[in-house]
Amino acid sequence: MPPGSRVRHARSPAGCSEFRRGLPQDSTPFGITATHGGLWFTDHGCNQSGRCAVGRVSANGRISELRHGLRAGSQPLGIAAGRGGDAWFADSSGAIGHVTSAGRITERTRGLTTGSSPVAIAAGPGGSMWFTDEGVKPAVGRATTEGRVREFSRGLLAGSQPADIALGPDGRMWFTDEGETTALGTVTTGVLG
Q1: Containing H/E element for 35?
Q2: How far is the C-alpha of 124 from the C-alpha of 44, rounded, in Å?
Q3: Using one digit for the tens of pLDDT, what is the confidence trace for 74-108?
Q4: Does 150 fall in a domain?
Q5: Secondary structure of residue 127 in the 3-state scheme
Q6: For 49-65, how does the pLDDT look when each residue is reduced to its tens digit (9 = 90+)?
Q7: 9: how many CB neighbours lie within 10 A of its CB?
Q8: The pTM is what?
Q9: Quick count: other Cβ atoms within 10 Å of Cβ 57?
């Protein structure tokens, strides 16, 4: 560095703010995503009924949680924005969930293998949602906008444990694998029916 030159530092944020009003005492917020209707989040701190929640933060900062439509024993984890302000979430108790911008929750289990445990979800090409499944038979799966769910295991390494997932700039879904042989994986979305 030339003598007399100054190092400029980026300004750090003024600080964080956290909000609890609207959250139950036993809440454990996990995933969060922004949609046209605000922010949606998952809460896997289940209440006494055994149902966890999907919550919304409105444009004015009001927090509300929804449980109607969740299965008993649900464990929502990853959540991602879908089309039209809707959100989709991975339920590690063995379901893929969809919540409309109006707050209607639907969970789907058909198309998932027995013992499935979806953990992360992301939007893919054409409006489909892609997810990872760390269950008994590890897989990467797809949920269509019509709600059809399908899982794919061919090509995964032995001892695979697919974790996070994202759409890459190449049009493929990329996922992390934290299993016995750690790896990064891809799914070529265009060849799947």
Answers
A1: strand 29-35
A2: 25
A3: 999 999 999 888 999 999 999 999 999 899 999 99
A4: yes
A5: helix
A6: 566 899 999 878 889 99
A7: 6
A8: 0.87
A9: 17
